[in-house]
């Protein structure tokens, strides 16, 4: 038995040296430990014939040999596996720049929606409600309630779409009618923005559309001042443009505010030094705004002796055009997927 | 409007330290928007008066000449393409180093020695627009150079070589004001009004505007009768006759003033009327009395509304048919002017004129504005009347023009009494202004003395008692501009300077803003549809064409229509999103094999009640719809692409969608591929493949499916997911079953029957549908994977076998299914 064991071990070690693959190793393992004909298995089966007094010594020896062989097999296996892994670096190498095929189409959100959502989120974070209003609006809300009576010259500049057989209706020319609707519905104090579609009857070209978007803002409380407008607008633009901005107010006329302002922002391109973007003035016109006219507060059911407020109108489509450098406003409603897939 | 620095300096003294650029900025910040500050001589460095002494044809170019130009110190050879160049002509000679703008556009270019078609050229003979004088000397034709021969007063040779700026006296700075920024300020439409603002801005004195009073006529004079038939349309009409007029060229100072603000001089009479209009903002008109007067030389004028279809021929010989809304100035037998707009060609001043009737009137702004837009006839006069002029200006203007006439036509004499028909009243206040109110509105603790100073400098009358100012409005601000205390806050704040106000932030309670459920739904849907459903969002116009409506079988009578559509081809307000969407699919299929698009937008239904109109009625209903469309070349069943995407998205919102094949009378809809879409038992819209015939009419190159649902209906159904099923402790077993059955049998029914068949069936999934090869006509093969699980024990194969057999039997019996291997 002893001799058989030691020759088995020698034989194994001799063969192990010739093993150069995992398959060969597997085969060698089988010749030793195979369940039916493995050399070691066979020897182990003979243990029952060993004399009782020798059993302990032989058994211990068998175990020692077995552990040794198993260990060597393991070591060889690991060595071979390491070799193998070196090879797959080449055999299984891939082109990491290929896309997964078949290619799946992607969906895209309209750039106007993306910016409107971003703006709405910003305003909500500052406590503003986000409101809607009808696109086909009454003459009353679009004009009269905003201190623009029938003969007012401001009506001329609004290039209004009228509705056949319904002189009392118009396609809203601005989002401002929602100011009065909001005051009537929610009272004061009030903070609201109204992103939405507006209509002007003017011929279209690269920078003019008859259908475009605005974002109206309204703040009503007691004791709102011009100083508040400047402060809030500065904060808003900083939030929208994600950088510190400098703003200035100058006189501007809109019938539904008094006083009315044009709000300019120091040109971000040239930092106020003057360039083509700001027409060499150092300032870019951003939005009209003003303190809500007492007549408008009255139309909204609020007492102008108690309440005051300010309103502003942001040309959100212009903002998107500036953000992405879009040269033609007509792209927005073209439905051209070559345009939309870029966003 | 153009404002001349030299002109306004007649009325105030602009502080020396204020540069023209600064004045421009200050006007923008305190008064009106200045678009440009133009130094008249900005392009005139190295530009001198030259005299063309020789003109020869260029050997190598038909349209070019080689000229010799005398500039006193030297004679320069210059190649010139001017169509009007001739020997003896005085020209604007741009010497080397001069900056010119080619064709009056773009950035200036510095002239250097050049060889033009082989001939050396030392500078350039300039056109007016190339040296910034295009407004002053408009070109008659494209290739015309500026001909100074008649313009340079002294034609002697000593003008030659002089700098052009000096020769023309161009030492002014012009401010170009954006007219849109002063529509509410009738007082700013003349130089004097601007001078008043500047004086207030810098705290300097303003010279009063006090022309001499008009004297009495010599002798009995002419008899003038003015009858104003419509005092509302004409609150004031003043007139006076002047005789012994000598029509002539205006003196240089007058021409220069007019040209500096972009007005072309005509003759002394017309020029002084224009001068006063541009100085004071009050239009004037001069009639040739010969054309108005009777044999005795007396004049009868009627200011009346025109008759319908009444003919009027303007000074520039254009013919108009008036309406009874228009106001005219007429004699007994003819219309002599369209009031406030323009004179007639039958009574204007000519070179033969010796007597004139001067009109200085006030007309109702709205009447003039309507006339202007009705006839498309806008003039400098009408632009001013439209702003609601101060009737007091009539008298000042008339005095000023008579004073000036005496200067430009010294023999002229007043030959009638002044007629003044007036019927007007202005609300000049006073307005009670609480100083604390001003401080609160401004957010600045401005002292009352400063408020008083500002208001007074603008012409307001101010009486101070305690903390209240009693403010009287000057007539030129009282026509419509200023009427409430907020208007006064603006006056004080803008002159004080918005830049001097320290920004503050209002105080607000910290409460989350109210939610807008529809908006939030739209926002979630946009993200889900785009980023999970892989559909791209489009935006269509709200307007739609009758041709498109006809193609899809819609009746235009159901539609709201625009009174004045921009494009005549899209006059209707959409009731659906689908039509314009399908047009977009069609266009995009030319470029893309697959088109997946969606839109969220409002539609207009006149038969349904919408929001309140603010008075007593309601607006048409304007619900927000969602439409989805899918088309792909080779996709024979686009319906399922859309329905599956929609179901998936709705699942995210916690909503279960049902598609029910309810017949629909709609030519847009494929007769075998349509469904009503409902959520929680509520109908929300439709989905269908486009009918092949309609698809052909629309030019769709691939089968297209479209879904349209009403989001306004979904909002109320939204719920938040609140359920969770504990994970089972026992494993599940999956079995597949494939069978053939009639095509009209529906997946939804089969799936429902399978899941209900036994408590052990916990999930059912369709994984294959097949028709065609080896499947008989009218049949389809379907394969389902059924998941079995018990919540009480680990199922064994034999447990499942029993149930599975039961299910197979059910499929055979209930659906006539033929089980495949």
Write the layout of secondary structure elements.
The complex is a heterodimer of chains A (343) and B (821).
Chain A: H1 2-18, H2 22-33, H3 39-46, H4 52-91, H5 111-125, E1 129-130, E2 136-138, H6 139-142, E3 162-163, E4 166-171, H7 177-186, E5 190-199, E6 211-221, H8 226-241, E7 247-251, E8 257-266, E9 283-292, H9 294-299, E10 308-314, H10 316-324, H11 337-340
Parallel strand pairs in A: 1-5
Antiparallel strand pairs in A: 2-4, 3-4, 5-6, 6-10, 7-8, 8-9, 9-10
Helix pairs in contact in A: 1-4
Chain B: E1 2-4, H1 5-8, H2 20-30, E2 34-39, E3 47-57, E4 65-70, E5 75-80, E6 90-94, E7 99-100, E8 109-110, E9 114-116, E10 119-121, E11 124-125, H3 164-168, E12 173-177, H4 191-202, E13 224-228, E14 236-243, H5 252-260, H6 268-280, E15 285-288, E16 299-305, E17 311-313, E18 319-321, E19 327-330, E20 335-338, E21 342-343, E22 356-362, H7 365-375, H8 380-385, H9 393-408, E23 413-414, E24 419-422, E25 431-434, H10 435-442, H11 448-457, E26 461-465, E27 468-472, H12 485-496, H13 517-532, E28 536-537, E29 543-544, H14 546-551, E30 572-573, H15 578-589, E31 594-602, E32 605-612, E33 618-621, E34 624-632, H16 638-652, E35 657-660, E36 669-679, E37 682-690, H17 692-698, E38 704-710, H18 711-714, E39 733-742, H19 747-757, E40 761-770, E41 779-788, H20 797-815, E42 818-819
Parallel strand pairs in B: 13-16, 28-31
Antiparallel strand pairs in B: 1-12, 2-12, 3-4, 3-6, 4-5, 6-11, 7-8, 9-10, 14-22, 14-23, 14-24, 15-22, 16-19, 17-18, 19-20, 20-21, 25-27, 26-27, 29-30, 31-34, 32-33, 34-38, 35-36, 36-37, 37-38, 39-41, 39-42, 40-41
Helix pairs in contact in B: 5-6, 6-9, 11-12, 13-16, 19-20
